Amino acid sequence: MSRFRVGSGYDSHRLAEGRRLVLCGLTIPHDRGLQGHSDADCPVHAVIDALLGALALGDIGKFFPDTDSAYKDADSMELLKIVLNNPAFSSWAISNLDITIIADKPKLAPYIESMREKLSGAMKLDLSCISIKAKTSEKLVPDAVQCHAAVLLEYIP
Ligand code: MG
C-alpha cells in the first residue's frame, strides 16, 4: 500500500436570498447566502469529499444524506470533524490541504486568513498546511459559489 494518498473534492451551491453565507465556518456579510440542506458551506463540503476520496470511502452524500432531517441546517464544520474522527483516518496524517473558492461576489480576500484559522482549529492542522485561494468565475457563474479541494494524506504507522 502506498504511503501517500491524494484526494480531490468539488462542490457548488447556488446563492439565494434569506440565507447566511458560511464559508469554512465563517459567516461572511453578503446580501445572499448559499442554498442547501445543511449550512451549505461549500469549501468544507469539497474538503470532506477530498478526504473521503483519498481513502476511497465514498462521498459526503453517503455519510450525510441530504434526505436525512438530522442534517437540516447542519454545521458543516461539525460534519468535517465527524469525518476526521472516523477510525479510517486514525493512521493517516494530513500533509496539506489546498482549496480554491470561485465566487464573483463577495470579494473573499479579506476573509481568507480567518477561514484558514477556522479550518486549522477544526482540523487540528497547522496553518502552514492549509491554503485557500479565491478567484472569480469572470461572470460565467455569477449566482453560485464553487469550490475545489485537494488533500494529501501520509500513512503514519
Ligand atoms: Mg454541498
Poorly predicted tracts of residues: none
Biggest sheet statistics? 5 strands, mixed
Rough shape?
Answer: globular
Question: How are the strands of the biggest sheet laid out side by side?
Answer: 4-1-7-5-6
SSE ordering: EEEEHHHEHEE
Q: Count of helical segments? A: 4
Beta-sheet strand percentage?
25-35%
Which small molecules are bound? magnesium ion
Number of strands: 7
C-alpha-based Rg, rounded: 15 Å
Q: Structural class of the secondary elements?
A: alpha+beta
Give average pLDDT, whole number.
Answer: 96
- Helix proportion: 10-25%
Distance between the termini: 12 Å
Question: What do these coordinates show?
Answer:
This protein is of the alpha+beta class and 157 residues long. The chain is 24% helix and 31% strand. It is built from four helices and seven strands. The strands form two sheets. A five-stranded mixed beta sheet has the order 4-1-7-5-6. The chain starts with a strand and ends with a strand. Strand 2 and strand 3 form a beta hairpin. Helix 1 runs parallel beside helix 3. The longest helix is centred in the first third of the chain and has 13 residues.
